[in-house]
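Dear Dr. H.,

I hope your travels went smoothly. While you were away I took the liberty of generating a structure for the chain from your last submission, since the lab meeting agenda had it listed for discussion. I wanted you to have the full record in hand beforehand rather than looking at slides cold. The sequence, exactly as received, is reproduced here:
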Amino acid sequence: MVWSRKPSKDRRYRVLGIRCAVDPVLHALAPLGLASAQGTALVVDLDDEAPSYPGSTSLAKLVVSQPRLSDLRPLRPGVAVLPNGSVHPREAEDVIEALVAGWPAVVLRFGAAQGLPPALLNVPVVPVAPLLPGFLHPSLAGAAVYQSLFPGPPPRLRGVVLPPLGRSHIQGMLTGAALPPRRWVRAWEQVWEASWR
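The corresponding predicted structure, in token form, is as follows:
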């Protein structure tokens, strides 16, 4: 799954972690949106318990066979996704470090409760939550990314509020058949520029 987007020159980080513990669909889509905002980026799935992204090569396979040069750098502009393949991040530490060294931007999808290898402990993690109405409103401590579910002005929150996604956009991104909508990707650009420490 590779998507093409114009790269962004303004960013604070080269590597960001991302996590959505409360919504499995948003947990799958958020890393794709964050990576798309950079133009050329790699999504590495470190969540060995979530449903895996599609793909013939996986992080688990690279741990066993060692990555080739073509795995360690982009061959063309766009977003590449490396599925997990049922490997714990601690077992893949060397491979992850090699991937981070070769790609211009890397998004790491973290699971809800996972022990990370020492090299990843300093990676800033972006929390993501759906923006539910009324008393279901999320209460995340600190800055976060919120996915609007309905049109209209968002409440005042610390962080980034993403515009709503239509059903066809969600389905297209999950199947790899469609690019994320431009307005949604532009909102993700703010995430690379914000402070997440």
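Two observations you may find useful: The first strand starts at residue 2 and ends at 3. Residues 24-36 form the longest helix (13 residues).

With kind regards,
E. W.
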